[in-house]
Amino acid sequence: MGYKNYFVLIKNLKREYPEAEILLFEGTEEGEKITDRTIQNISGIHKINTDLISVCNVFISGDTGALHIAAGLKVSTLALFGPSDPELVAPLNIESDKKTVHEYIWKKPYCSPCYNPVTVTDKGNSKYWRNGHFICHTGTHICMKEISTDEVFDRLTEIINKIR
After folding, report:
1. Residue 132: which region, alpha, beta or left (left: phi > 0; alpha: psi -120 to 50)?
2. Rounded Cα gap, residues 22 and 8, in angstroms
3. CATH no. of 3-108+148-163
4. Separation of alpha carbons 107 and 111, rounded Å
5. Who contacts 141 (Cβ-Cβ below 8 Å, separation ≥6)?
6. Cβ neighbours of residue 2 closer than 8 Å, sequence gap 6 or more
7. What is the pLDDT of residues 72-129, one digit of tens each?
8. What pLDDT sits at residue 24?
9. φ/ψ bin of 139: left (φ > 0), alpha (ψ from -120 to 50), beta (otherwise)
């Protein structure tokens, strides 16, 4: 799911769940402003705020440290996987904990997972690494772009119904 699609998702969530308080943990792209006052943008915070994560009902994220912190704090998660393999690293559901649900979406295109134990450690491999950053070696980012806002919304609705 591309960055701007998070804003589409937020608008859809606000329409379906007008009482919901939405926290946006990522910053905006250069020049982009959030004008919707019902969205709390906590960008500019350069550390992970576990207090804010811990009060979330559901945490939606790519495969990030914040995702795993949310899972550790027993916050339900919806993880969006692209370059990494959720079968290796996705938060696990614990049978005895029915109030916390962890689900993921992974389209698994032909090139995924490209971020795996071999490629992640070989930072000298220019196919996957440039200037210290892991890159999309196909230049397409299809692993994330194939995830639609409708699919995320539908899966989130399922999670909300499970934890209610």
Report:
1. left
2. 13
3. 3.40.50.2000
4. 11
5. 2, 82
6. 141, 144, 145
7. 999 999 999 999 999 999 999 998 888 999 999 999 999 999 999 999 999 999 999 9
8. 79
9. left
Beta-sheet pairing, 102-106 with 129-130: unpaired
CA nearest to 83, candidates 148, 144, 130, 140: 144
Domain ranges across the chain: 3-108+148-163
**What distance in Å separates the CA atoms of residue 101 and residue 158, rounded to the nearest whole number?**
10
pTM: 0.85
Q: What is the pLDDT of residues 4-14, one digit of tens each?
A: 788 899 899 99
Q: What is the mean pLDDT of residues 21-32?
A: 64
Three-class secondary structure of residue 79 per DSSP: strand
